[in-house]
Amino acid sequence: MFRHMADLRPPSDDLLARLARLLGPQGFITDRSDIEPWLTDWRGRYHGESKVLLAPRTVQDVAEVVRLAAEAHVAIVPQGGNTGTVAGATPPADGTALLMSLRRMNSIRSISTADNAVIAEAGVILSVLHDAAAEVGRRFPLSLAAKGSATIGGLVSTNAGGTQVLRFGSMRNLLLGIEAVLPDGSIFDGLATLRKDNRGYDLRQLLAGAEGTLGVVTAASLRLVPAIAGRAVAWIGLASPDAALTLLRDLEGTIGDSVESFELVPADALALVLRNIPNTRAPLAKPHRWNVLVEAVGLHGGADPVEALQDALAAAFEAGLIEDATIAATDVQAEALWALRESISEAERIDGPSLKHDIAVPVSAMPAFLREERTEVEAHFPGVRIIAFGHLGDGNIHFNLLPPEAEDRDHWIARFGAAASAAVHDLVVARGGTLSAEHGIGQAKLAEFVRLSDPVRLRTLQAIKQALDPHGIMNPGKLLPLAPKPAAP
Predict the structure, then answer these.
(1) Which end of the chain is more exposed for a tag (fewer CB within 10 A), N or C?
(2) What's the CA gap between 318 and 323, in Å, rounded?
(3) CB neighbours of 20 closer than 8 A, spacing ≥ 6?
(4) How far apart are CA 362 and CA 432, in angstroms?
(5) Can you tell me the distance from the alpha carbon of 38 to that of 363, in angstroms, rounded to the nearest whole number?
């Protein structure tokens, strides 16, 4: 059974007073101008309400907040950088939940080159962690466009992916340990940086990707890898996703694990960036229907990645696999190429409302999906424009629909959006795929997740939720649905 909304209560004046005493003026924020930026999701489509913003500084503070909330049956919505795309950190519109920011918990507690590990609190910004690792000759191999604002707690809670999944996997693969406050206010201390630990259920993996519905992640132990000695970043023009996948497998055969990123960018996505993002320019002399951004790296004592990638691309050109390519000569040029890829979502947002689908299918099925399912969607919704880009190497493509140019976008989405998204998701599931590859479910995908999921999966998730959070206080309405209060007989 799903938990009823009636089990949760709004925060009382007494509870708010106790929380104010506990957290002090820096941790109990009531200024409306300080709260408002955190009440709306990154895409601006979901809006919540909260009287206060709680900003604890220690794990003990978090534990006491959760204990008091559990005692009062009051919901808590944990929040990191608020950069998610499924409104998983947006509070409910009725103002009944406590909004808790983890951004003040921003210390890197330890970093060890001997363990190749770092322990970072939930509020540490990803780019700050990158810099800290670089200072000791290591790196944290997860990057994404929101690295300047995304936080470690949010990345763990959503099992973030990013552009290096091809080699290193998602956040779960990089997670060695976790510290979290459970729904009863107890602290789970699992931060040991063990590579092997066979003591039953893996609680760190249970909490990773749970979107704050099973507890509040307060810190994480994360795997580091050696710093690179050099990098090669190339922008490649080619004819089709089929050619792109063949190129990827050829590169893996010739230069192996040095290929860390392989991003597919169609011509229309590049055009959107060039139109909407200042100081961007086309990397190749003429447009190509499809493009690939490749990054290969070299370690100390290893082969020069620039020479290796040049040789591999020359062979691909001679074989007719690619149409044109350029390799960045400097780090500045490399970052400019990456900016084209990482600015696609921002360019879409500037362009206007769209339907975003974070889907994945088996890698082998992706070229056909982009070719055949695209045609089917366009046939069912005439005039719709499809921007499909992302991580071809792990089967994760952002399959986004822009309304017809002649239509009012908001009106078209209101009229056709649900049916269009359902059509995309049905096609994905038919290919053995998923409607959420790396951004989670939140509240934006909740109805579709329930519609398309195996009942066994849903029952199991709900059983775990019921066991750990019997009062349903942790981020209600995200990932798993709340049932309305039954009607009176």
Answers:
(1) C
(2) 10
(3) 28
(4) 7
(5) 36
> What's the chain's length in residues?
489
Full-model pTM: 0.90
Domains of the chain: 5-103+458-468 (3.30.43.10), 108-226 (3.30.465.10), 230-345 (3.30.70.2190), 352-441 (3.30.70.2740)
The half-sphere exposure of 9 on its side-chain side, counting CA atoms within 13 A, is: 11
Report DSSP letters for 143-195, one per residue: --TTTTT-BHHHHHHTT---TTHHHH-SHHHHEEEEEEE-TTS-EEEE----S
In this prediction, residue 1 carries a pLDDT of 40
Q: Report pLDDT for 486.
A: 45
Q: Which residues contact 1 (CB under 8 A, 6 or more apart)?
A: 462, 483
C-alpha–C-alpha distance, residues 378 and 386, integer Å: 8
Please give the pLDDT value at position 2.
45
Residue ranges for the chain with pLDDT beneath 70: 1-6, 483-489
Residue from 402, 474, 472, 483 nearest 450 by CA: 483
What the block records as the tokens of 86 is 């499924």
Distance CA 442, CA 79 (A): 12
Please state the φ and ψ torsions of residue 341, each to the nearest 5 degrees: -70, -45
Angle at which helix 59-72 crosses helix 13-27, to 10 degrees, equals 170
Rg from Cα positions in the chain: 23
